[in-house]
Design brief:
By secondary structure, the protein is of the alpha/beta class. The protein has helices at residues 18-29, 41-50, 64-77, 101-129, 150-170, 188-191, 203-216, 225-234, 239-249; strands at residues 9-13, 33-37, 54-56, 83-86, 133-137, 176-182, 220-223. The protein contains 9 helices and 7 strands, in the order βαβαβαβαβαβααβαα. It has a 7-stranded parallel sheet with strand order 3-2-1-4-5-6-7, with helices on both faces.
């Protein structure tokens, strides 16, 4: 099973913005070859200029075949992928008064299909080697429903269940699984959420917390600690109490 000393090649999707970009830069500084994927070739080129250990592999995560081709290209050029972080994600406000199906389907396509497509492209090689590390980008907001977060929260709840299932299936086969569960991070994605944001964290700090957690190869990296405890405790409360607390804590401004 992969440990920190085994990370020679990491593949990150959604690598040009927010947490993904900071993880790419941090791992590259530590000597890991980083295969960076995003749709924008220009942004990937700019990121690659920051460190020679970062190489650009442009693709749209909703295109399963394109990701399969990228995974093959990475392994041909850099070697086996030791760590994969499907970090591409989007958030769109969920307005129950005017359901925007385009936004909902786009959220599912990127946050769910994009992750599954990335895993499907890398898992066969990991299983054949009985080695590798899947880092699933979830969210603390996948543990409960939140106001105006129906599609995003549901997509992250999917990631929690997916990671738990993969852990059960893959641990005996030598492949590590880690669920990454951030709270609010100061990124463009969170900028679209207009409810209160508690203990918001800078992307650079979030990236450090994630990499440090991945090095320990535990099942979940959840932060900030107070927010993680809040969501995990509130989940087991009676539903009437849970809904009252959430409505109060995340009341509209």
């Amino acid at each position: 099973m992969s440990k920190k000393s085994d990370w020679k090649v990491c593949w990150i999707t959604g690598a040009t913005g927010g947490i993904g970009r900071e993880i790419a830069l941090l791992l590259a500084k530590r000597g890991v070859k980083v295969a960076a994927t995003a749709r924008s070739k220009d942004k990937l080129a700019e990121l690659a200029k920051q460190n020679g250990a970062i190489l650009a592999f442009p693709a749209d995560v909703t295109d399963a075949k394109a990701l399969e081709n990228v995974a093959q290209a990475i392994e041909q050029q850099l070697g086996p992928i030791d760590l994969v972080i499907p970090g591409a994600g989007v958030y769109a406000p969920f307005d129950v008064t005017k359901m925007d199906l385009k936004d909902i389907h786009r959220t599912n396509a990127v946050n769910i299909d994009g992750v599954v497509n990335t895993i499907a492209a890398t898992l066969p090689s990991m299983l054949a080697r009985r080695s590798g590390h899947l880092a699933i980008m979830g969210s603390l907001f996948g543990y409960t429903g939140l106001p105006e977060s129906g599609s995003y929260g549901a997509s992250k709840a999917y990631m929690i269940n997916l990671a738990e299932s993969l852990e059960l299936d893959l641990a005996p086969k030598g492949v590590a699984v880690t669920l990454i569960s951030p709270g609010f991070v100061d990124t463009a994605l969170n900028a679209n959420y207009d409810r209160p944001k508690y203990f918001i964290m800078k992307p650079t700090k979030a990236a450090r917390r994630i990499v440090e957690g991945l090095e320990k190869a535990g099942f979940e990296v959840a932060f900030p600690g107070r927010v993680a405890i809040f969501f995990k405790v509130i989940r087991v409360l009676p539903k009437k109490a849970m809904f009252w607390i959430l409505r109060t804590a995340f009341a509209g401004r």
